[in-house]
Amino acid sequence: WLMKAEPDSRIVKGKDVKFSVDDFESAKTTPWEGVRNAEARNLMKEMKVGDKVLFYHSNCKNPGMFARNPTECALTLVQVSKEAYPDYTAWDASHPYYDPKTDKENPKWYMVDVTFVRRAPHFVPLSLLRNIAGASHPPAEVSYIGNDGVKAIKGMALVTRGRLSVQRVEEETWRVIEELAERGGWE
Predict the structure, then answer these.
(1) Residues contacting residue 182 through CB under 8 Å, at least 6 positions apart
(2) What gap in Å lies between CA 63 and CA 6, rounded to an integer?
(3) Which of 54, 75, 119, 173 qualifies as a FRET site for 7, CA 20 to 30 Å off?
(4) Which residues contact 73 (CB under 8 A, 6 or more apart)?
(5) CB 57 within 8 A of CB 73
């Protein structure tokens, strides 16, 4: 899975809704609240305890994965620690993601709990993934991913449908992203 958050301050209903990898690392475990897209909600309802998740910073200067330092936008390894349950923030009128069209007896929105696992050693920028996705063969600096790796990245929802906040990540794609994050070579 891949889940996106915004690392930079953004005020909604008077509250800052930013959530960075540093916030996540400090919290250790957090409910993934406030998802108000039906497709993303349905994907979260499929998640099982122990499922791996790539935590991705979006809407920032240099979006990407696995921060080397706290100022980079990052993707971090996390895992699902509690399966989907009703998102109680939807019923709180003071909450930035309040939804007056849902109620406790018939919840519309759900969330999962996720737990921080680790940061990888190399920053994987979205621009690199787009470069790989646009290639017919792996770029020389990441030739180790092979043609199968290029194919996996080409099919990744992050490069084909970027805006969805919760996405599936296929096993081969996960393997390629993890290899990029561990080996680097393009810096």
Answers:
(1) 120, 121, 122
(2) 10
(3) 173
(4) 7, 57, 58, 60, 61, 62, 63, 64, 67
(5) yes
Among the listed residues 23, 21, 49, 19, the one whose alpha carbon sits nearest the alpha carbon of residue 120: 21
Task: Point out which residues pair with 78 in neighbouring strands.
Answer: 53, 116
The answer to whether the CB of 80 falls within 8 A of the CB of 69 is no
- CB-CB contact of 168 with 4 (8 Å): no
Token pair 């600096």 is found at 141
Q: How far is Cα 77 from Cα 54, in angstroms, rounded to an integer?
A: 5
Neighbours of 54 (CB within 10 A): 25
Q: Which amino acid is at 99?
A: D
In whole angstroms, give the CA distance from residue 174 to residue 77. Answer: 11
Taking only the tens of pLDDT, the chain with its 187 residues reads 999 887 777 888 888 888 888 888 899 999 999 999 999 999 999 999 999 998 886 766 565 554 444 444 445 788 999 999 999 999 999 999 999 999 899 999 999 999 999 888 887 888 899 999 999 999 999 999 999 999 999 999 989 986 788 999 999 999 999 999 889 888 7
Q: Which residues pair with 118 in a beta bridge?
A: 77
User: How far apart, in whole angstroms, are the C-alpha atoms of residue 176 and residue 156?
Assistant: 11
Cα–Cα distance list, 115 to 53, 65, 101 (Å): 9, 17, 30
